[in-house]
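Case study 2.
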Amino acid sequence: VQLQASGGGLVQAGGSPRLSCAASGRTFSSYDMGWFRQAPGKEREWVASITSGGSTNHADSVKGRFAISRDNAKSTLYLQMNSLKPEDTAVYYCRRYALNRDRDYWGQGTLVTVSS
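Prediction:
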């Protein structure tokens, strides 16, 4: 399984980039997926999750600004980021949660830098 995250870069505060995470394999739709981030000098933290059925949850710090979604036909996970703040600067990772005997997998991360 490979998870390829993309869409990061240097963004001005208030910007609205969209991150993508392309997954290999043919059973993407069966798995819950999530986005995490790790800011410089801080621990990795959960940002948002989406179940196989499409139910979503977002961390309080991004609720109302970020939106997680998925396109099962394209085996791709998204994170729409709006109203970015400098404190959103981090490496963003996608995660495929474990299911049955399959372990969880992480993407390689994509850096989002928000300039003020």
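The longest strand covers residues 90-96.
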